[in-house]
Each structure stands twice: as structure tokens, then as C-alpha cells.
Design a protein that fits this description.
By secondary structure, the chain is mainly α. It has one domain. The protein is built from three helices and two strands; from the N terminus they run αααββ. The protein has helices at 9-33, 39-60, 67-96; strands spanning 101-103, 109-111. It has a two-stranded antiparallel ribbon. The model is unreliable at 119-124 (pLDDT under 50).
Length: 124
């Protein structure tokens, strides 16, 4: 038994990273695509972490009600969902507002040189 995984590393990678992480990435992406606020990522990951704990319990005989492993799963899923959200939001911002923003990396955008903050807002 490790501090991060309850069974073997392979089971941890399969359930938490592959299955849970894939669902977390897609959830973060869906939240960003619908222009919802980032705090909703946390709300959905609280639920998804419970699902991941149930998968450990149902498929591998793990502990269902383990606060320690629930928190570990939650932190990992929050990180993956946050990355999915941010990566998608950057794509949205540089596509939707291409006249104002440009990509500054995979997880950030910056104001284009010469772009005025007031352009398109109806303010001087």
C-alpha cells in the first residue's frame, strides 16, 4: 500500500489517471466550451472523485470510504480537469477574440501589440 495508490501502480494508473483523468479532462473541456466559470470544475471533480473511489471498490475490492485516497484522487482529478479547462479556454480566447489576444503558450494568452482594451467594448 502506498501513500498515493491503494493497490498496485498499474491499477492506480488505469483507474485514477486513465479513466478518471480522461473523464476529468473532458469535464474541464466541456465546462470551458460552454463558457461556465472555473469554480464549476471543482464541483464536478468532487463528484467524479467519488465515482473513482467506487470503481476501486467495485472492480478491485478497494476501500470505498477512505478519506485519504478520496483526497488524493480529488487533487489529481482537479489538476487534470483544470488543465483541460485552461487549455480549452486559451483556444477559445485566441479564436473568439483573435483581434485582441494571441497565444502565449499552451496555457496562456496575451494582448496583441497595439490592441486597445476599449476596442469592441463600447467604451472610449
Amino acid at each position: 500500500m502506498g501513500i498515493i495508490w491503494e493497490h498496485t501502480l498499474g491499477v492506480f494508473l488505469l483507474v485514477t489517471i486513465f479513466l478518471g483523468g480522461g473523464a476529468a479532462w473532458l469535464s474541464g473541456r466541456a465546462i470551458a466550451l460552454t463558457w461556465r466559470p472555473v469554480w464549476q470544475v471543482g464541483a464536478y471533480m468532487v463528484l467524479l472523485a467519488g465515482v473513482v473511489r467506487f470503481l476501486y471498490y467495485a472492480l478491485f475490492g478497494g476501500t470505498l470510504l477512505s478519506l485519504h485516497y478520496y483526497v488524493v484522487n480529488l487533487v489529481i482529478l482537479l489538476a487534470i480537469a483544470g488543465l483541460g479547462f485552461r487549455f480549452t479556454r486559451v483556444g477559445q480566447m485566441v479564436t473568439q477574440y483573435s483581434w485582441m489576444y494571441e497565444r502565449a503558450g499552451p496555457l496562456s494568452w496575451k494582448k496583441r501589440p497595439g490592441a486597445s482594451q476599449a476596442v469592441g467594448t463600447g467604451q472610449p
